[in-house]
Amino acid sequence: MAVRVPVAKLTFLAAAAAASALISASAVADTGQAADPDTASATITDEVLDALVSELGRAEASLRIPGSPEPYRIAYKVTEVEVEDVAASLGATTAEKRRHFAVLDSFVHVGDYEMDNTNFVTPDRENIDGNATVQLPLEPDPQLARHAAWRATDDAYKQAIRQMSAKDDAMRTGVADRRAELPSYSKADTAHSRDPVLVPALEQREHLRSRAREVSRAFADEPHIRDSRVAFTTFLERRWYLNTEGTIAHDTRRVSGAILVATAQADDGQHVVLYDSRYGHTEDDLPTNDELAALAADLTARLDELRAAPLIDAYTGPVLFEGVGAAGIVRNALAPELGGTPLPLGLPPQKRQRIGGGALEGRIGLRAFSQDLSVVDDPTLSEAEDRALIGGYEFDDEGVRAERVQIAEDGRLENLLMSRVPARDLDETNGHARLNIPGGVYHGSSTNLLLDGGEGATSREELREELVRQAQDQGLDYGIVIRRLDDPHVTANAELSRLELFQLLQGRNPEAPPGALLAYRVYPDGREELVRGAQLDPIPMRAWRDLVGVSEERTVFNYLRTTEDPNLVRLTGSVPGFVPSAGVESAVVAPDLLFEELDILRDSTLRRSPPAVPHPNERD
Predict the structure, then answer these.
(1) Do 275 and 257 form a contact (C-beta atoms < 8 A)?
(2) 8 A C-beta contact, residue 447 and residue 391
(3) Please, are residues 534 and 313 in contact by the beta-carbon 8 Å criterion?
(4) Contact 338, 446 (CB under 8 A)
(5) How far is C-alpha 204 from the geometric centre of its chain's CA atoms?
């Protein structure tokens, strides 16, 4: 027997269809390049969207299992992705791939806002979380789309029931900690916008292939370069958010990127690697081929210096992060801690470390940073310092409109980045649900993260002089400057054997930032000495309160954030032609940062004997 959808549900569709979509114009303006009508989806058409809305209403009206808790909220997130990836080495294409797919994620919450199934990891059954994902057809077929939504919603509902039962048991037995006393989910304003969000068309694969080949030739005829690659990626993500609370919203995110990686072997046999990555809204935001070739030449020169550079000695003292090194330490040591979403109950410790958060819990209104530091996260920005920022969006992954958040002002913690899972001091979302985590919820995470030194900022040169003074005050012969950190998602290398990788990972602290690829000793006379093997110890939050100085100059760094274990990426992500084009679009705008005291260890792993036969480019 057919189920009749209540009139209230039909008004949801009518209101959404009548709503104006202001985001279309803003998306075009943000890119600085004319939008292409062809970038409107040919897969998720109005007819398909209407079918999904109808199925959502039918599920709300009839999704019941006698004796089980009823759903109070059902949501769909539809994601359509188009990607072009190309990689080349020494002037020849090594890999290329086109991907086009669409998926539907169904989220079912049973119970009520005060107590539902979410934010709880069932012991040994992490995949039971009230979520289900199904593939959608690329052809616009409303019947198939509705059938897929029906299957996903049924699966998600049955998972939610099992998750709720396990959560009830944990609370009754006292296993759940005090966070279980908080409401499970917060209410949020509904959004209505379903018009196509048009963006510039993706660059053609043939064009990217030509660029990759040309730039990759810059590494040729360099006998000390062991391996190198140049990769280009261009992708867009179309997203639609629907829920039984009344939201229907649409957004499109568009990114292009270029990645350069080169490796060499030090005089003592140690494997060394350097990379450069650039992301923007479109190719117009990327360096030209000549500029990329110059970056490749610089990587080549730095690698040659690294081959002869001494290994660093264990060091405790002041450390200055400059340029992309400063952005890198913000990305790896600070950004993960700015989410205010309580971590799911029962989450294994190793996964808590990768998600971050919790270090600033209970500190709202207190000083958490140096008084010279203010921190803002603003997904409404499209650029800063005359550079594109790729972390912007109109709606987060829960369909909530993005908000600018003042995290800290003059060192005092004002706010954290929130999803719809309430925290003790923060009970409402601020549109920062972006990181999908175990337990069936999204974690509040950074988007466009901007740090500013305000009136206390100094010039880069003065900050370097202060580094030397601090080192001398501590009785040290030199200070340390770090200008680039590693990114395993970019530099993962298929050449390393499993045994070598295992030895590398055995001695690595999973809580520590990635290794420093470019680190220098700076002496009182201003002389700099490049060193190898600098591995920072974990950086505690208190170190951000003890910052000695902040520069006036700021560096923009775009990247793709993922919760994938970087150690696992080293083992499995190093396939030939690997192009990092997956992750949450993110950006950091950071000044140089001088820390009063950090610990650095020596990493002397990954040594191997030299090649038995000289490099092919070496002359007899």
Answers:
(1) no
(2) yes
(3) no
(4) yes
(5) 25
Average pLDDT over residues 431-442: 92
Sign, CA dihedral 522-528-534-539, equals: positive
Residue 144, CA distances (Å) to 40, 140, 148, 196 in order:
20, 9, 6, 21
∠ CA 589-595-597, rounded to 5°? 155
Contacts of residue 529, defined as CB under 8 A and 6 or more positions apart, other chains included, come to 309, 310, 478, 520, 521, 523
Q: What angle do helix axes 46-62 and 142-172 make, rounded to 10 degrees?
A: 40
Provide the percentage of residues in the chain whose pLDDT is more than 90.
73
The string over 558-587, giving b where at least 16 C-beta atoms fall within 10 Å of a residue's C-beta and e elsewhere, is bbbbbbebbbebbbebbeebbbbbeebbbb
Q: Tell me the average pLDDT across 314-320.
A: 98
Over the stretch 132-177, which tens digit does the pLDDT of each residue have? 999 999 999 999 999 999 999 999 999 999 999 999 988 888 766 5
**Could you give the CA distance from residue 160 to residue 526 in angstroms, rounded to a whole number?**
62
pLDDT in tens, 57-96: 999 999 999 999 999 999 999 999 999 999 999 999 999 9
HSE-up (13 A, CA, CB side) for residue 341: 37
Amino acid at 585: E
Distance CA 460, CA 10 (A): 60
* Residues 311 and 602 sit within 8 Å (Cβ to Cβ): yes
Could you give the CA distance from residue 261 to residue 302 in angstroms, rounded to a whole number? Answer: 12
| Prediction pTM value | 0.91
| Rounded Cα distance, 357 and 453, in Å | 23
266's tokens: 């030090």
Distance, CA of 457 to CA of 591 (rounded, Å): 9
Contact partners, residue 188, CB within 8 Å, separation at least 6: 245, 398, 400, 420, 428, 429
Three-state SS for 422? coil
Residue 528: count of CB within 10 angstroms of its CB: 12
102 pLDDT tier (thresholds 50, 70, 90): very high
The beta strands (E) that lie in 394-505 are given as 405-409, 412-413, 433-437, 441-444, 448-452, 479-485
What is the distance between the alpha carbons of residues 442 and 349, in angstroms, rounded to a whole number? 18
SS (H, E, C) 27-77: HHHHHCCCCCHHHCCCCCCHHHHHHHHHHHHHHHHHCCCCCCCCEEEEEEE
Smallest Cα–Cα separation from 162: which of 213, 124, 198, 214? 124
Spell out the residues 6+ positions from residue 269 whose beta carbon is closer than 8 angstroms to its own.
Answer: 607, 608, 609, 610
Residues 6 or more apart in contact with residue 569 via CB below 8 angstroms: 488, 489, 492
Residue with tokens 């409404």: 380
Phi, psi of 214 (to 5 degrees): -65, -50
The answer on pLDDT for 14 being more than 70 is: no
Q: What is the token pair recorded at 83?
A: 């990607």
Helix H or strand E encompassing 213:
helix 205-216
Cα(354)–Cα(514) distance, rounded to whole angstroms? 13
Q: Which is nearest to 127 in space by CA: 443, 436, 398?
A: 436
And the tokens for 549?
Answer: 């100085």
User: How far apart (Å, rounded) are the C-alpha atoms in residues 613 and 461?
Assistant: 46
Give the residue ranges of DSSP H helices in 460-615. Answer: 460-473, 488-491, 498-506, 542-545, 566-572
